[in-house]
Amino acid sequence: PVLASAHESGCIRLWNIQGNLMKELLPFSEYSSGPLTVLCTDISTKMLLAGSKEGHIICWNIASFLEDPQNKKNQIKEKLCWKAHLTQVVDLFYEEEKNVIVTASTDGSVRIWHAGNGYYFGYFGQSRKFDLSDTSRLILPSDVSNFPAIIREESKSMEKKIEYPLMLDRDK
Fold it and tell me: Residues in domain IP5PC-F beta-propeller (predicted)?
């Protein structure tokens, strides 16, 4: 068993049942997610999802890490991040059978998203029926302008790269 806790700093901490910190996660994406407000997992605990005060949804693949937390090769991989609402996400859940994520916000909306790519299907109360089979057209809610960011594995190598462009030149 693992306990996940979300924090105002935007990090997630994973704890074992003895109360020892196993892992600390920070979102990798270019968007600052802000304080985290809600967490959920799928039924098989392969995916960890978080919602933020800024309206972002972040998805991590945690399956290999939970199989063997001591193995350093089994890392948690951030898969996807997107702006789902303009205001705080207060609840979310992942429906595995339909492969959708449902989010609720303080803006009063409840929205449905494709779990694999963050595509927007619609909102509860809309006049048209949900078409969960069509993931080819990329649409956004009227109040959101950023498309989902799929985190590529090759981009993670630059995660810790720090540049120091200013250097003291004593000759000048």
Answer: 27-114
DSSP sequence for 82-106: EE--SS-EEEEEEETTTTEEEEEET
What pairing do the DSSP bridges indicate for beta strands 77-83 and 56-61? antiparallel
Number of neighbouring beta carbons within 10 Å of residue 130? 14
What is the pTM for the complete model shown? 0.77
H/E segment holding residue 21: strand 21-25
What is the maximal distance between C-alpha atoms in the chain? 71
Q: Which domain holds residue 62?
A: 31-150
Residues in contact with 123: Cβ distance below 8 Å, sequence separation at least 6, in sequence order: 109, 110, 111, 112, 141
At 113-133, the pLDDT tens digits run 988 888 888 888 888 887 777
CATH number of the domain enclosing 54: 2.130.10.10
Q: Is residue 21 part of a domain?
A: no
Residue 55: both structure tokens together: 């309206």
**pLDDT score of 156 more than 60:** no
